[in-house]
User: Fold this.
Amino acid sequence: MVHALERLVVRHTRRLPLPAAIAGHGRAPGNGAARRLDAALMSVGFKLSAGLFDELSRLPEETVLAVAARTLDSVRETVGDHVRHNVYFIDFPANVPDTTDFWTRCVAEALDDDTARPGLLRRLRAGVLDLLALPSYGSYRHTYEEMLAAHDALIAAAGDRLTVLHPGGSLDDEVTALYLSLAGSTTPLGDDHLRDLALLAAHRADGPQPETIPVREHRAVVNRARLDAGAGLLLDTVTDVLRLACALSDGDVALREPTRFRALSRPVRRALLGGLDAVVAAAPAKLADVAAHREAWKRLGERLHPHEYPRWPHAAEVFSVARGETKAPSLDSRVEELLGRNDVVGAATLLRSAPGRLLRALDRLLRAADGPEEVDAVLSACESAVPRVSGRVVLSLREHVQNRTGTAGDRRVFVNRLGAAWVTPDTRPPLPPEVRERLCAVLDAETRRRLPAPGHLLVDPAVLDVALPLSGRATAAGLGVLPRGSVSPVEGELLRFFTYWKQTARTTDYDLSALVLDEDLGTVAWLSYTALTAVEGRHSGDITDAPDGASEFIDLRLGAVRGRYVVPQVNLYRGEGFEEVEESFFGFMLRESEQRGRPFEPRTVRMKSELRGPGRVALPLVFERVEDGAWRARWLHLYLRGNPSENRVEENRVTVAVLLRGLLSRTPLTVRHLTGLLASEATATTWWDGVTLPEGPVTYIGLERPEGLPPGSRVLTPENLRDLIPA
Assistant:
């Protein structure tokens, strides 16, 4: 368990928890071990900061060696180096054959095989060539060690990634700080982070707690841990109880997917019903929230048996409302009734009591408003509500408004919490420019009011085009991963994609592919198992079964790409989905042509993200050539539904082009927006040049934490960028 907690700290903070120094030991004992650890870390693209090296050097050698073993395990998993990445073509990217020549060779080898020949001849007479029936197709023809021997060592380059690890406090202090940060986040965490929060909450349920837990899903996870620990529950709505019940059944605490409730013990039933009774007794009007999740409440009632507990009559009212026996009109139904009578001003006035819902319904109210007076009344209601909603809602509305220009051909892009996306034409009338300007001014003023005084603001320009993490579900766990909509530069001659998967029980075949599109999103070429070679690059070969894990690679020479866009994707051909396999991830490397090296070199990995989504086609990001010939990555984190099996890049080209056209037309709200607001309140603003550090504490915003920041500095990097979103 100590190792698991330490791994969480390293992954989330890039800080290494340190054991206390042992009395009687000076600087020398751990110096040699620290140097060996530093060298080992550099081989996988990590490094000890000067401060961390100094701290480790003070510890006994055996302590440093124990820390080193755990740390290396953690960072290798983070970068994807904890597994063996083999390739089908042993010399990849050299000597990859033409696709037709390769298939012909596989057929010839099968005809020479007495066992395979009869079946192959039957298929050929029927006019069918099944690649999966060819003995030499789809399985490694050499060992991992033989593949390594076929490649020269990597030549180090100045552009290789180097992620610095910094010294932390004790494990207890680091775990507490991480727990408070995740539990108190102002934006919803992704599923991976929610699982991390659950683990941390189990260890800190009876310890320090955040002042507030603004996100309801986080509260459900924390409440489950508090219930297990016998601590008091944090409940102030009936829906808090429903979310907790979902958490106890390992269901969806966001309440978007139905949960199959488990049988609950009597102590748990008493805790839930007692908490529910107290909430309704204190505010009977909260019964109106029941209708939004009526069916879930009915199913939960079958597990709680509220009729067995007459001492909690208010809890019984909840289930009476769910069954329709007691009337408790919801706010939404009352709003719909007013809008049905074309009473827009009345609806806006009613929604003042629920400011979050008012802001979410604002676009609809403005479109329904009849004349300047009603528009002004709706905007006035919005202005009065803005100070009472969360910073995430304020910024989400700001992003929405800036994209409501009504440009001809606009498309609406919908992305659910699981990353499934679809696009439709935007038939809504545009918001008038004066309305958009008034709203943006109000929202910016409110955001500026909530932002803390940054003092001296130190900003890395590379972070400015990173999209604000308004939801943790707009990203994925991994290394170097940025929120959906972010743009980051890509520098290097060779771009290499990789994917790895390991099946759980069934034969599973994932296909790494890359689609090259022109300026109008028309198809130029693709690389996949059906097109192993192209002007742009090479494919490492198709692996069709992964009981022990399998990897596929695509090598691209950016200077040879004939189109404007490169879209890597992972297609499920057959077998287990991304949420069923034991493990699956995608990433990309950048290197120079003279570096050589193995197909997978951890020092050159720029990004590695987990593949965990409901679709059959994963679209992690798209690469775009800009006007000066440089390349940049635009982050997607999307999944297409695809077919139940046999998905291929050739068949989803149109869907990908339509989706990209919609996404490229949208402008996300980025760090640039918030730094602009922060700069107006800063005592000074400095652009980080990678060398010169100001004197005194700073608020640093960047992609990587610099070494040597003055004590007392606040650091915001992609790992904790959510802390930039005001409450």
